[in-house]
Amino acid sequence: MSAIPDEFQFQTSSTCKYNNSDPRCVEVATNVRDKVAVRNSATGTTVEFTAVEWTEFLNGAKLGEFDVAA
């Protein structure tokens, strides 16, 4: 984890079920060139990725690479 610049503008997923009794959502900022920051709304913990890393992650997720069998 790195220090997150103030210029990141985080957006919460439209599928987030955020409420005061259970404030767990993922927020993503893509407004800084070649960087993507992902933040836990409950803890503020943030992880920064390169744009290439983020694209590769999204492609893998779409292909089911991270699906866990129940």
Describe the structure.
It is flat, with a radius of gyration of 13 Å. A four-stranded antiparallel sheet has the order 1-2-3-4. 17% of the residues lie in helices and 24% in strands. A hairpin with a 5-residue loop joins β2 (26-29) and β3 (35-40). The model has no long low-confidence stretch (mean pLDDT 85). The chain starts with 10 loop residues before the first strand and ends in an 8-residue tail after the last helix. The chain contains one helix and four strands. It has one domain. With 70 residues, it is α+β, with helices and mostly antiparallel strands. Residues 10-62 form the DUF397 domain. This is DUF397 domain-containing protein. InterPro entries: DUF397.
The figure for the number of domains is 1
Following the backbone from N to C, one meets helices and strands in this order, namely EEEEH
Oligomer: single chain
Q: What coarse outline follows from CA principal-axis ratios?
A: flat
Number of helices: 1
- Structural class of the secondary structure composition? alpha+beta
Rounded mean pLDDT is 85
Helix percent reads 10-25%
Q: Measured on Cα atoms, how large is the radius of gyration?
A: 13 Å
Kindly estimate the percentage of residues that lie in beta strands according to DSSP.
15-25%
From the N-terminal CA to the C-terminal CA, the straight-line distance is 30 Å
Strands of the widest sheet, in order across it, are 1-2-3-4
Count of DSSP strands: 4
Low-confidence stretches are: none
Largest sheet: 4 strands, antiparallel
